[in-house]
Sequence to fold (176 residues):
Amino acid sequence: MLVWDGAVHTTRSLKAGVRINKDSCNTRAEVLKAEAFMSPEQGPNCKLTGGRWYSEYDDLYIDGASGLDVDHRVPLAEAWDSGASSWTAAERQAYANDLGDDRALIAVSAKSNRSKADQDPSTWMPPAASDHCDYARDWIVVKVRWQLAIDPAEQAALSEDLTHCPNAPVKVTLAR
Fold:
C-alpha cells in the first residue's frame, strides 16, 4: 500500500476511480484487457471474468484476473523519490495511470509484484531470468519518458544487467 497524492492505493487498484473511456473500465482493467493471452469476458461495470495472462516476471500463465496485479514498472514510491515529488497532482495521476506506453504498466502475478514492492533494479530483478533484459530496458524507458532521475546504485545495476542483453534501439516518447 502506498500514499500517493494523499490517498491510499495499492498496485491492484491503480487509482480505481480513474475511468479511461466510456466502457467504465479503470486503468487496471484496461491493462488486463490489453495484455490478456486469452481475452476475459467483460461484464457490467467492467467486471472481468475468465481470461488468461502470461506473467513475464515469473514465467507463469495465470487463469483469471484475481491472481494478477498491475505493476508500475517504476513503482510510485521510486518515482516520488526520483522527481515526482515536485510534480503537480495531475502529472502524478497521469503517471499512475500511464496507458500511453505499454512498458509503463504490466500485468504480472500478484506474488511477483508484491515481492518487488517499491524496490529498484539494484535490489530486485524478476525471478525469471528470461525477463531481465526487458525489465531493465523498460525501467530505463519509463525513467526517460517521465524525466525521472536514476541514482548511482540503480545505474550500476542496470549497466551490469544490460551487458548481458542484445543491443537494440529503443524509442521513447516523453510524457512531460
Summary: The first strand starts at residue 2 and ends at 4. Residues 132-145 form the longest helix (14 residues). DSSP finds six helices and eight strands in the chain. Helices lie at 27-35, 76-81, 89-96, 110-116, 132-145, 152-162.
